[in-house]
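Z., the sequence and structure:
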Amino acid sequence: MFSYLRCLLLLLLSVSGFAQNLPAFKHVFIVVEENNNYSSVIGNSSMPYFNGLAKTYGLGTQYYANTHPSIGNYFMLTTGQIITNNDSYTGTVTADNVVRHLLTAGKTWKAYEESLPNTGYIQPDVGNYVRRHCPLSFFSDVVNSSSEKLNLVPFTEFASDLANGHLPQYSFITPNLCNDAHNCSLATADGWLKKNIAPLIASSTFKDGGLLIILFDESGNDNNHGGGRVAWVTVSPEFSKLGYKSTTFYQHQNTLRLMMQGLGLTTFPGAAGSGSNMAEFFK
């Protein structure tokens, strides 16, 4: 009887995700694309690079955004809460968040934002840069710190940080309004990924314990589970189960949990605290 109960408990824990072990990742990266349905992306011949990654590494086939419009999803990816659905929000977020936990754990971070005018910029939208796509720029832990603001950097720094071995342990990467498929085509977004992300995947730094997630923040016209079904791909040359497709239901809080726990953190903000860690994608 004891053996039966023990096996049952282990099974339940495994299903819930809490008993599943994650690899120890050295660097984690997230790239957020915009406003397209899963069915518009997966299998689309206009996105050969992205679909190649989906076939080679890990694909979440039942991954859903949390809300509409964009900003609530970006906050869920970094605070485990929607915070607001006002895309014009300009306040300061004091809620628990990923930066707070990274700093407590002694981890390094950067937000690489394409078309950001200058390092530490926390002012309104300008050109193809929109602040609502840079959730870390709203956190009190960043806004009120002269040193942490310096981790909000233009994407142009990404290539040099990669080349010089200066990548942080946690990277939040946002293409601009054209290259994230918000204002331009999926083909444009795919070309940007091939140009800018392929060198990362090919690097010795990334091959040694790197984790990359590329996802869409919300669907184009689907409201299921709040924000609709979207494409979600994970890449880890060292740890991915190759060609793996998951049918498990996941949302943005699971991505937040995966990235943080993968770096060895043991506490998590908001819904990430009770979300499963997506360990099924890894060896």
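The chain has one domain: 24-281. Residues 5-19 have pLDDT under 50 and may be disordered.

Let me know what you think.
H.
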